[in-house]
Specification:
heterodimer, A: 100 residues, alpha+beta, five-stranded antiparallel sheet, 5 strands, 20% helix, B: 555 residues, Sulfite Reductase Hemoprotein, domain 2, Sulfite Reductase Hemoprotein, domain 1, six-stranded mixed sheet, 21 strands, 39% helix, globular
Chain lengths: 100, 555
């Protein structure tokens, strides 16, 4: 039996800026994790990932990142993904400086 | 200092033009990411956690003021106003946009710099003693040889697709400041019966399988260097493993073949190719050596220096930690610390880079060095200029008096930037520095090297830290392992793992317990942490790190 699927979002980096982006319900890319579409069905998640992998002129390195539903939308589970939603901890650079 | 020839200039310009076209083709869709990735990596462009990262080579860590100013310009114009100096004497820009990178490479080419071979399975930027050409203990300046190796290895058709990356370090001094035993090839300049040559060390490396290099040739005559290095790389290219990335470095080839067999194969290959070398390389080397002729050191009194020492305790404290012995009378080597307490190790703002460039021009014969310990060196300063230099550094926030002390920490970018990292490094370094500054213990502790890596690849050299810290992901939580007794110098040693790791908020208190154990047990003020560790062994330090366990055993 395969491992139980953990709900996930599709995430990548934007081709031009390298910024972290998340795939939304409409298939667009958002800079904000809470705007991502949270997949609970593994087949739908895989299909969304494959769709992202065809968007080579928009994003790079798409993958599935485990997440859970929070108050305002999906929230990351792993600390690496939490850091990706913010930016580095040594300077106020990256997403943490931008209004949600 | 070496200046680009027409050949160097044309080569770097053509590579920049090629990369500009490659980026255009990537953006038009003519190249897929899969096709583009190896091309961008060959030009030092990585994709990290939050953005692209451009790694620029600073060959053998040597820069002039125009180059430093250009790095400042790049930081200000195309990045976020700072750069990060690395443990391989490179500089990394953390926020470039893909479309801007060709312009950045052009700006680098304008001052004789590039990002070629700062990634990929090729011969990487050759590193050298950061005091090269200045140190009082030096036999000869290793940089002409490093430059020869740069020219020889750049775009070398046989060695662009090695089993894995390949790092070379060289020192001209018996006191090893270049960590030669932790490189694929380490070269130490030596003399035999008055003739110059090299001790050749092969198979060192840190990472997941840390190993110290072994001497493959005790004395290699100077003129045999390139054919011998070619023989080593040729053997590695043929017998290095390509089936397993984690077993692909030459240290594993050495481990699996054994030293005798590896040496025999290198010597056989050397005998085969040596006759093909006509000596043209030695003619090139002679030209390079002329370019590295030492500056005209001035003969002047040093009274102003002595007077400032007497008058100003802040200056004296800085002079005691940040100066090293220069070979020319009346001169000093100045290490400018990029480790202000609480700052990011190795980071310099564009303004600080400009100040350093100005000071190099004004007081330092236009020369700067980057150390693998992530500091900046002004290698040739007359002692009478030190008070004015110190005042200018102080005004720029660059006069931290901590070189070689507990807050002079090496830290890789870790999970604040790096896509490979398993935990953060920078905040751990910041907190250790701030903690011991608050305790006002730094100078009482004395010489101590803490080195922090945010993953097993060991860019932060944790295995050769007196105290090494390795950040890991343990079941989805940051966890930090401590190693003790590592040493990157001529008495090199790989640190010993102390025991189970510590959580993020437990690592600084753990380091503090270690330090307090050392302060309690040292024989005298003169016994350093490393000396105490070598005398006492790991037991008292383990007891300090794991007090509960100690009690449990006693019960």
């Amino acid at each position: 039996m395969s491992r139980r699927f953990t709900p996930s979002v599709v995430t990548a980096n934007a081709l031009l800026s390298g910024e972290v982006v998340y795939q939304t319900a409409t298939g667009e890319w958002s800079a904000h994790h809470h705007e991502a579409l949270l997949h609970t069905d593994p087949e739908a998640a895989q299909a969304a990932l494959e769709r992202a992998q065809t968007q080579g002129l928009v994003v790079v390195g798409a993958y599935l990142a485990e997440a859970r539903m929070g108050k305002t939308g999906p929230e990351p589970l792993h600390f690496r993904e939490v850091f990706r939603t913010r930016g580095p901890s040594n300077y106020a650079h990256g997403k943490q400086t931008e209004p949600c | 200092m070496y200046r680009y020839t027409e050949f160097d200039e044309a080569f770097v310009r053509s590579r920049t033009a090629q990369f500009r076209a490659q980026v255009e083709r990537r953006l038009s869709g003519a190249l897929t990411e899969e096709e583009f990735r190896p091309l961008r990596l060959m030009n030092g462009l990585y994709l990290q956690l939050h953005a692209y990262m451009l790694r620029v080579a600073i060959p053998y860590g040597t820069l002039n003021s125009a180059q430093m100013r250009q790095l400042a310009l790049i930081a200000a114009r195309w990045d976020k106003g700072y750069g990060h100096f690395t443990t391989r004497q490179n500089i990394q820009f953390n926020w470039p946009k893909l479309g801007d990178v060709p312009d950045i490479l052009d700006a680098l080419a304008d001052v004789g710099m590039h990002a070629i071979q700062t990634s990929g399975n090729c011969v990487r930027n050759v590193t050298a003693d950061h005091f090269a050409g200045a140190a009082a203990d030096e036999i000869a300046d290793p940089r002409p040889v490093a430059e020869l190796l740069r020219q020889w290895s750049t775009d070398h058709p046989e060695f662009q697709f090695l089993p894995r990356k390949f790092k070379v370090a060289i020192t001209g001094s018996p006191n090893d400041r270049a960590v030669t035993r932790a490189h694929d090839i380490g070269l130490r300049m030596v003399e035999q019966d008055g003739a110059p040559g090299f001790e050749v060390i092969v198979g060192g490396g840190l990472g997941r399988t840390p190993m110290l290099g072994r001497v493959v040739r005790e004395f290699l005559p100077k003129a045999d260097l390139l054919p011998y290095i070619e023989a080593i790389l040729s053997v590695y290219n043929s017998f290095g493993r390509r089936d397993n990335k984690y077993k692909a470095r030459i240290k594993i080839t050495l481990h699996e073949l054994g030293l005798e067999e590896l040496r025999a194969r290198i010597e056989a290959r050397f005998a085969e190719i040596r006759p093909e070398w006509s000596g043209a390389d030695q003619a090139v080397l002679a030209q390079i050596e002329a370019a590295f002729a030492p500056p005209a050191f001035r003969d002047a009194p040093v009274d102003a220096y002595e007077a400032a020492r007497q008058r100003d305790p802040v200056f004296r404290a800085w002079a005691d930690t940040n100066l090293a012995a220069h070979r020319a009378p009346g001169h000093a080597i100045v290490t400018v610390s990029l480790k202000a307490h609480g700052a990011t190790p190795g980071d310099a703002t564009a303004d600080q880079m400009r100040v350093l460039a100005d000071l190099a021009e004004r007081f330092g014969h236009d020369e700067l060095r980057i150390s693998h310990e992530q500091n900046v060196i002004l290698p040739h300063v007359h002692k009478s200029d030190l008070p004015a230099l110190h005042a200018a550094l102080k005004a720029a926030g660059l006069a931290t008096a901590n070189v070689g002390l507990i807050s002079d920490i090496i830290a890789c970018p870790g999970m604040d930037y790096c896509a490979l990292a398993t935990a953060r490094s920078i905040p751990v370094a910041q907190q250790i520095a701030e903690r011991f500054d608050a305790l006002d213990l730094e100078h009482a502790i004395g010489p101590l090297k803490i080195k922090i890596s945010g993953c097993i690849n060991a860019c932060g050299h944790h295995h050769v830290g007196h105290i090494g810290i390795l950040g890991l992901d343990k079941a989805g939580v940051e966890n930090y392992q401590i190693t003790l007794g590592g040493d990157g110098t001529e008495t090199a040693a790989i640190g010993e793992r102390a025991g189970p790791g510590f959580a993020y908020d437990e690592i600084v208190p753990a380091v503090e317990r270690l330090i307090r154990a050392y302060l309690e047990q040292r024989e005298s003020l003169a016994e350093s942490f490393l000396q105490a560790y070598r005398r006492l062994g790991v037991a008292p330090f383990k007891a300090a790190l794991y007090p509960q366990e100690d009690k449990a055993h006693a019960a």
